[in-house]
């Protein structure tokens, strides 16, 4: 991912929190000479050795999984809030742009066994059912329903490289920076407001 030095995020804790909060990602690999991508939850977890990895699952019917046998190199893409920034918000002539936060994770993927896949599903469901009025638990599902879990491949990704971009108008002076935040908040667009919130954290 091309990232000018000004916009590189090298804060490991920030990146870790971002991945946990924006875990619906895009898994990309090459299958039969063609690039493939699947939109799925990909969770940051610790393996048995205490090393950070990514976990997820993919349908056995998805042809993308065939490529894992030939080439275990994958890219997982995670995006956060993003918004158009109008140059009319500056006190000088300039070009419009786009503010955004994104993280790319490169690594090696391996398929895990059925028991490990089920444990991954338990963690995933528990995470997203935590605030449910009537939370579902994988442990409570019938044997008939759990047979559907036989139709997925659970996987782990050994993280080899992380590239993180946080492009939030860092190149603007305080006056224009604050004005961009103000204008983003006026849009009533949830994405724009989220960008404004992130910008407010970076510069008081």
Automatic annotation (TrEMBL):
Q: What is this protein called?
A: FMN-binding negative transcriptional regulator
Q: Name one Pfam family in it.
A: FMN_bind_2
Q: Which InterPro entries match?
A: Split_barrel_FMN-bd, TR_PAI2-type
Q: Taxonomically, what lineage is the organism?
A: Bacteria, Pseudomonadati, Bacteroidota, Flavobacteriia, Flavobacteriales
Note the superkingdom of the native organism: Bacteria
């Amino acid at each position: 991912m091309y990232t000018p030095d000004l916009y590189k995020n090298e804060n490991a804790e920030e990146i870790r929190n971002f991945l946990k909060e924006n875990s619906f990602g895009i898994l990309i690999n090459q299958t039969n000479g063609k690039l493939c991508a699947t939109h799925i939850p990909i969770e940051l977890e610790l393996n048995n050795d205490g090393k950070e990895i990514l976990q997820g699952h993919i349908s056995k019917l998805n042809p993308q999984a065939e490529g894992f046998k030939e080439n275990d190199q994958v890219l997982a893409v995670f995006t956060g809030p993003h918004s158009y920034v109008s140059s009319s918000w500056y006190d000088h002539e300039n070009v419009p742009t786009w503010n955004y936060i994104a993280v790319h994770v490169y690594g090696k993927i391996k398929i895990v066994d059925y028991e490990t896949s089920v444990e991954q599903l338990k963690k995933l469901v528990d995470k997203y059912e935590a605030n449910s009025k009537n939370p579902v638990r994988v442990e409570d599902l019938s044997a008939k329903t759990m047979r559907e879990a036989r139709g997925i491949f659970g996987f782990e990704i050994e993280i080899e490289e992380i590239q993180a971009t946080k492009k939030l108008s860092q190149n603007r002076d305080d006056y224009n920076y604050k004005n961009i935040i103000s204008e983003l908040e006026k849009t009533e667009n949830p994405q724009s407001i989220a960008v404004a919130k992130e910008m407010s954290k970076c510069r008081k």
